[in-house]
Amino acid sequence: MEFIKKYPKLFQWLFLLIAFFALCFAIDVPETYKFIRVQAEFVKDPNQSSYVFLGKEVRYYAFDVFWRLPPLLGWLPIWINDSLFFLMNEWMPMEFWDEDIKEFKTRPLLLQVSRNLTFFMTFLIELIREILIGGKNTIVTFTSWDWISENPWAKLPGLPWTIVAAGAVILGYNLSGKGLALFAGLVMVYISIFGQWKPSMQTLSFILVAAPLSFIFGLGLGIAAFKSKRIEKALYPILLVMQTMPQYAVLVPAMVLFGVGDHSAVIITMVVAIPPMILLTLLGLRAIPPEVIEAGKMSGCNNWQLMLKVLIPTARRDILIGVNQVIMVCFSMAVISAFIAAKGLGYNLLLALNRLDIGMALEAGLCISLIAILLDKMSLAWANKQIDYFGNLTFFQKNKNILFFAATVIIGIVLAYVGTFLFKGSYNYLFEVPHNKGISTADFWNKGVDWIFDTFFVYIKAFNTWLIQDVLQPMRALYLRMPAVATIVLVVGAGYLIGGIRSALVVCGLTLFIALSPWWDRALVTTYMATFGVIVSCIIGFTVGTLCFQNKHSASFMLGVCDIFQTFPSFVYLIPVMMLFGITDTSVLIAVIVYATIPATRYTIEGLRSVPAGLHDAATMSGVNKFQRLTKIEFPLAFPHMMLGLNQTIVFALFMVIIGAFIGTEDLGQYILKALSDKQGAGKGLTLGICVAFIGLIFDNLIRTWVEKRKKHLGIN
Amino acid sequence: MSEPVIKCEAVYKIFGENAKKMLQESNGNVDAKTFQENGCIVGVNNASFEVSKGEMLVVMGLSGSGKSTLLRCISRLTDATGGKIFIEGQDLLQLNNKELIELRRNKMGMVFQSFALLPHKTVVENIAFPLQIKGIKTEDSISKAMDMVKLVGLDGRENYFPRELSGGQQQRVGIARSLAVEPDIWFLDEPFSALDPLIRKEMQDEFLRLQDKLQKTIMFITHDFDEALKLADRIAIMKDGIIEQLDTPANIVLKPATEYVRKFTEEVPREKVLLIEDVMDPSTTENLGDLKVLKNEIIENVAEKILTQEKSVAVIDNNNKIVGSINPTKIINTVFGGRKNNN
């Protein structure tokens, strides 16, 4: 009894666990239960139960309600589909002028909006794309196809790659100096001579449209949320869900609304990239000291001046981190949106992965990563750039960048023209190195993969078999063995113990949504894969972070490594693991682990660093040794921050698990991927995405609540 | 005297949702405790005073006493819950947004405790900022700002960024910025509180030099009683939103109105604050020694001379006319006596 009084929390947790296990043992697996069930959509099985809601029939396999809840939300995806269909095809028909057939046509409003948006986006993308690599579509927009066929000379010529490369070098130099200029040059030359020019420029044009638009909208909405509590309240739940929503899931509804292609990809990218931009804008504006705002007001600023000249510049740092995030999301989406036929490197990467052509995939992936790192560095340099207003500059000094660029344009054009004579009869390499006509290392990599397989096949296979049979399968079985009621009791109980009744209710709502959807089993599999990934990632990240923290240089180095790894689009991680482990769950899990270790490591180091120096000294003066200092001072204080890292780790892991569906898993991701090729997929894709987001949010809620309590307890702000 | 520059009539600032309604119901009889029970916090409680042209009013109080809130009501960075505020006869609370901006652009300057400089602008850009906001051309505003840079002694640092300056230098920029539009009214919100003691003293002297030259109407906020005594024409001492006493430094030291004010005055070295005229005896003008002292000397400066005299010393005004007398005992009583009684 003494013990219980001393540790009441411990006792409560113990009680919760006992209740959980008691439920698990008390409720038997129904004899009819099989995980891989015949899918209700395709086969009508007389063993199925069904109910009708809103005129939709939902068929499902009924079990004891304690074992699995009936899918009472089964109608939701169908209903979403129907609503979308109604909105697109029937809602508010209006007369619209159709330029192509020169007459008015009746069309539903949303369809017309979608058409206009599509037209606008396509125009923007084509414009930039054709400046970079040439084409006719932009001119067609202003004239017509007939006109083009009469005037075959009319097309944008595209820039020779030398000019684009030189432009990148000049920009790099202007932003940050020689280092960045050199890097920009190397990246551009690499892309060109390896024959990835065209797809790279396609990807770049996509990003040059998506990133600025996301930035503008994100900034605008962020400001609106800052100004109005009501807007913030309305945006907040959307932002929260979008943060944990897998990017796959957004593809499907967007496909229904906007069709397939680059324009659709840009819109989806904006949907994904705007929320972090809003959050960071809001964060930056919130962090402005009130006195600075007052100083602006007392200087006589009106609202516009206050926003443009005081608030945004002062919040510059966070806003630019937002820009950075936007760029990263754009690259990530550049690959994923290849699923809806966006052109560029992502498409090549996907194609190569589909063919198991690891070499090609690697080259495309490397190109994406390099461009991503380049743009990342450029945006950061832009963020930190200071303008010299007072230097007494000559005309040449002021305009040297423009002059240089003009010179390179002329030289580039001359070179390209000379090239037409040099490479007579073959490709003009001074204009553009055609796709697959450059140097390629693909064969080398493919042979390397073959060699690895031939040489280490036995070991890899053995490891694979061991992991799958002895670790993964039992773990999966355990997860699936949990009766729904037991899971809900565990999660809600944890919510109550951590955050009281409020937290419990939130968590309960989120869990119930998943439990009442038709995909509870799949969600369990997703959770099991994520859990496994998170546990391993945390162990690795924690250990590596702690070790690196012991030395200042290694800590900085490790953070740098994390930065670079984070710039890789998530899809790229699948390449090397497929190289080694082929198409198995192991591949997915290893990709998950690598990807999710980044935040785990980063937050461990940052958490340990945030321990105040004064405490360090105090501990040293109390005569602790290194180990004692770590366990008694640093870990307890850094723990809340490290838990935020855990939060990120979970989100990263979930993302990767879902992306892993591309390799082939049996979880929610698989269904999302399926929904992509399903006519009725929009509702399903969205609902599945929400399910994944909710899994993330359950952990998010629990961890955040705990961290806030803990921080208050420790007196860290 | 002409019309006061700043005039407050029963100004209240109460934070909370039902503040306005509660204030109306209370009929001006605001009790902080009852308000707090209803979720309202009283910031300023029935403040009435006037500041005339060229005068420096120092508002002194500890943190949470409402002094900064009072200043923000008068600069209308926050709207007062009740009462009236007149700036040069204009009813401040009746101004619309446009008029308010005009007023701030032309009449008001403000200095902040944390300097509140714009981090992305250089020294000279920060100072030119209010001018540029007014729509003055870049060249003109920069040249005007350069004058200000010289005024506060930052020549040669005009292209520095705020983060490259020390605290004292940053506050010089803040002062220069607030003066750039040549305002008539100058608000200073604990301008020297974030500075080191030595720098603080230097900045106070600098401030007095500037004020000597510029003769602005000033409201100066501080939590430092010594600073208040050193700078003020008049001091308002605030506690829990109420102005406990508003008077000249000498009167506050000699005749503290409340127990709270008296506590502040206990440790004050009176000989450094009080003038001869504050302690002289105006009735006796005969049978005096040869020594004469000016009535507006600080006691400390003449105490030694007076103490060596046996007879009472004559006090004269600027026209060399005897207006009273003072004897050595009085000096000793003033310097040491008051404190003992209070213990």
What's the gist of this structure?
The complex is a heterodimer of chains A (717) and B (343). Chain A is mostly helical and 717 residues long.
Task: Give an overview of the whole structure.
The complex is a heterodimer of chains A (717) and B (343). By secondary structure, chain A is mostly helical. Helix content of chain A is 75%, strand content 3%. Chain A has 29 helices and 4 strands. In chain A, the strands form 2 sheets. In chain A, strands 1-2 form a two-stranded antiparallel sheet. A two-stranded antiparallel ribbon of chain A has the order 3-4. The longest helix of chain A is centred in the middle third of the chain and has 40 residues, at 442-481. The model of chain A has no long low-confidence stretch (mean pLDDT 84). Chain B has 343 residues and is of the alpha/beta class. In chain B, 43% of the residues are buried. Chains A and B meet through helix 13 and helix 14 of A and helix 4, strand 6, helix 5 and helix 7 of B.
Distance between the termini of chain B: 41 Å
Shape of chain B: globular
Q: How many angstroms does the end-to-end distance of chain A come to?
A: 36 Å
How much β-strand is present in the residues of chain B?
15-25%
- The CATH topology of the largest domain in chain A comes to MetI-like fold
Beta-strand level of the residues of chain A, as a percent range?
under 5%
Number of strands of chain A: 4
CATH class wording of the largest domain in chain B = Alpha Beta
Query: Can you give the mean pLDDT of chain A?
Result: 84
Write out key terms for the chains shown.
heterodimer, A: 717 residues, mainly alpha, MetI-like fold, 4 domains, two-stranded antiparallel ribbon, 29 helices, 75% helix, 3% strand, globular, B: 343 residues, alpha/beta, Rossmann fold, CBS domain Like, 2 domains, four-stranded antiparallel sheet, 15 helices, 13 strands
